[in-house]
Each structure stands twice: as C-alpha cells, then as structure tokens.
C-alpha cells in the first residue's frame, strides 16, 4: 500500500466529528428502508454467529470489518446517487472479504496484545495490591489508573482500525498497511475522532431506549459515519449534501 500514491491525511477541526455524523444521517435518510434492512440483516447474522459455542464471540468480532466494508461500499454507491439493492451489502464484497477477515483477525490480535501489556504494567506497579481481596476498593488510584489505561488502549486501537475497512474496499489496501494508515490519520485528528465517538456513544444510548429498535437506524448511521470521516480526512473532503 505504501508503494501507491496515497494522499496524506488531512487535519480537520474537532467540530468535524459532528459533521460526519450529520452527513451520514442525511445519506441514510435518502433510502431509509434499504438501510434499515441492512441493519436488520447485520444484526441477525451477528446474533446467530455470536451464539455459536467456543468461537462465536471471536467470529462475531472478525465479521465486523466485513460488514463495515459492505456498508462503506453501499454508502459510496448511494452518494453517487444510485439506488441501493437489498443484496448489495453482500454482493459488492466479493473482491474484498478475505482482506476484511484478515483485518478483523489483526484487530483482534492488537486488542489482545494491548490488554496483555496493560495487565503486565498493572502487575509491575501494583502486584501486591492486586493479590489482596477488594484491591480496587482499597486503592482508588489503582481503579483510576486501570480505567485510564483501558480507555486509552481501546481508543488507540480504534484509531488504527477506524479507516482501515474503507482503505481496503475503496483503495484496494492490505490489512496491516491499512491499519498503519488509519492510525496515522486518526492520531492526526484525534480530537475530531473523540468528538465523533462521544456523539455516537450518546446516540447509541438513546437508540437502546425504545426496546433497542433505534439500533436499526444507529447501525447504518455509524457505519456511514466511518465513510464520511474517511472522505473528509483521507479523500476529497467532506461531500456536499445534495
């Protein structure tokens, strides 16, 4: 991927995090029934896979970037003004699904490594305290440090993943170079990324209120937000709403 002429990621203001979500909602609103169908298919497949014994949770996580790639390709098609078809979520993935699966495995491995490093660090710093009962109640500092380390680790991992599915399906990238590029673009725009993530987290909480039915809208908006953010940071800038 590095051998190709890949544009240098743009640095955007933190307020763009909200613009990404807004533009994603506008795009989903143009063909709502199809996007809702995509979300329903995604949810049913993920629930079925997650219920499998032993490997269910791992396979469910590996499938996330595969579906992310499908949603991104659908978003690109919708932004061109084309009509989405119910099976587009799957049919357009044929050239990319293997690399997206490898991306999911690489991301899973990154999370495992980060969590192991965090555990080792905590053992080195607070080994004696962790061996006692009620360690977190007795050491508020340990609890705060644990939360900061976990939150920071997950945020760094998410930056290395966020743009990677888009790089694979729209630029033909390979998983590891796509993750490195995503980390570079994400770190350059960590403020906007954090702002966007907080907005999506709030919307996720609201989506859960009416028996979780709001997730049928939240899911496509979330995936299309990834596409919009990539377009703004790594592509030709924020697309104008028609």
UniProtKB/TrEMBL annotation:
The keyword Hydrolase is annotated on this UniProt entry: no
Coiled coil (residue ranges): none
Parts of the chain that traverse the membrane: 58-79, 100-126, 141-164, 185-209, 215-233
Name the record gives this protein: BPSS1780 family membrane protein
UniProt keyword Membrane, yes or no: yes
InterPro entries: BPSS1780-like
Species: Vogesella margarita
Protein keywords: Membrane, Transmembrane, Transmembrane helix
């Amino acid at each position: 991927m590095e051998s190709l002429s890949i544009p240098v990621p743009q640095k955007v203001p933190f307020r763009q995090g909200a613009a990404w979500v807004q533009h994603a909602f506008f795009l989903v609103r143009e063909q709502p029934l199809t996007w809702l169908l995509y979300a329903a298919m995604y949810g049913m497949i993920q629930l079925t896979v997650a219920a499998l014994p032993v490997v269910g949770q791992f396979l469910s996580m590996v499938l996330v970037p595969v579906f992310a790639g499908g949603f991104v390709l659908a978003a690109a098609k919708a932004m061109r003004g084309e009509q989405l078809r119910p099976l587009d979520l799957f049919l357009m993935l044929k050239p990319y699904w293997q690399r997206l699966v490898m991306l999911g495995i690489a991301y899973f491995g990154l999370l495992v490594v980060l969590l192991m490093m965090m555990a080792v660090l905590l053992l080195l710093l607070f080994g004696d305290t962790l061996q006692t009962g009620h360690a977190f109640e007795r050491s508020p500092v340990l609890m705060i440090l644990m939360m900061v380390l976990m939150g920071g680790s997950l945020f760094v991992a998410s930056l290395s993943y966020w743009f990677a599915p888009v790089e694979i399906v729209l630029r033909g990238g390979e998983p590891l170079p796509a993750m490195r590029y995503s980390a570079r673009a994400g770190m350059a725009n960590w403020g906007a990324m954090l702002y966007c993530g907080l907005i999506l987290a709030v919307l996720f909480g609201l989506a859960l209120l009416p028996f979780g039915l709001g997730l049928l809208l939240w899911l496509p908006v979330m995936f299309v937000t990834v596409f919009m953010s990539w377009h703004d940071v790594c592509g030709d800038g924020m697309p104008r709403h028609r």
